[in-house]
């Protein structure tokens, strides 16, 4: 890491960057995806299903 250009961000700065990153429009391209990308997408879908199942179970 380049110490001369590094900056220690405050918690507020980090939260702002995270919020801005979540607002970015990200598209998934199957043509550009590699095996790890496809595996991550599959795990994400399974996690969403489990989370929805837990939410519905509580209601």
UniProtKB/TrEMBL annotation:
Coiled-coil zones: 28-58
Protein name, as recorded: YfhD family protein
Recorded superkingdom: Bacteria
Pfam families tied to this protein: YfhD (PF14151)
Keywords annotated in UniProt: Coiled coil
């Amino acid at each position: 890491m380049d110490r001369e250009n590094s900056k220690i961000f405050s918690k507020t700065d980090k939260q702002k960057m995270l919020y801005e990153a979540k607002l970015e429009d990200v598209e998934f391209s199957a043509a550009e995806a590699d095996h790890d990308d496809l595996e991550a997408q599959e795990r994400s879908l399974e996690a969403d299903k489990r989370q929805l199942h837990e939410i519905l179970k509580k209601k």
